[in-house]
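Here is a typical protein record:
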Amino acid sequence: MTWHGDNNAGTLAGAWVRKITSCAVAIAAALSLSTVTAGAQENWDEVLAGAKKEGKVVLYSNLQPNGVEALLQKFREDHPDIATEQIRLGAPPMLERFVAEYNSGRHIVDVMITYPDERLLKGIDEEDWAMTWTPPELKNFAPEHSRKNQLFTLQQAREAIIWNKNLVTDDEAPKEWTDLFDPKWKGKIGFNPPWRALAIQQIIAYWEDELKLGDTAAKLKAQDVRFFEGSGGIIQAVVRGDVAVAELTDIPLHPLLEDGAPVGFIYPKSGTTVTNGVGFVAAKAPHPNAAKVFLNWLMTEKGQEQLLTFGGLSVTRTGAKSLEHLPATTELPKVVDGLSLIDSERQAKIVNHYRTTFGVR
């Protein structure tokens, strides 16, 4: 799945070019830009005033548990008239909560930050879960980071191979996905099971459908792979030495590298998948203006820097800083949007096959 911003400008421009001179087009465009800019500024002033009157924004997110409150504190410093409340959940239970509240008419959340799946996208498209609007800061993001002016990509998680540097030297560490199936790593590999995370389903689809690695469930079973709960459980197992190497969604990687954890990592040259961390304003947000102010703040240069610092993931604003210890997504050898590889049918097939292979109900 590729996200494209709405763009009818080319068709309209072509029609005008056939009717008037290029000089007139330039003048009209300049006047139009001036009018739009002034209008946007006037409307944003109204949004800021409305947000101050509402006085609160409610966030549901799956941001780093030790970073989300620090992030909100930075927002409150810039907007002291807007209080913040937040609930942190994993992506699946967060969506379950949102759907239950929406269907019951209990509209609590203003902004959600999550990893989208097909169900969320369908709900936005068919049930109008998300507000359509244009954040003032959107001009600083590439078009692919806006989906219909409803979902905005703020940060990205990537799949990596990691290892305990006290147990494995950098020279002998796995460099490619195929290396994980080398018998020398039998009994030494950690993995987050695909029934727990969409990101894992996506990397499996990449392995099997793009890299043609065959039945990866059977291969991992032959390796006596050890399952751990979530990316946090994976990286803790590697640091403890419970396993020597692992596949990891890199959400917790940067904070541990900052703390000096003995962890090596690589993003294979054959490519990896990226999971977009998106934000959206709920269509029936009880504090819609405060919601817009908060989400737009996350898209500012300062907000992206704070999200980088306290979220620990690569951010998406054009020209934004990179993480100190990890490369930016744009610096990786090959990156594929995980959602482009998978739909609900492929998800179910992967999960069911892995459960059957490992005897897990």
User: Anything to note?
Assistant: The CA atoms of residues 44 and 136 lie 8 Å apart. Confidence is low (pLDDT under 50) at residues 1-42. The radius of gyration is 22 Å.
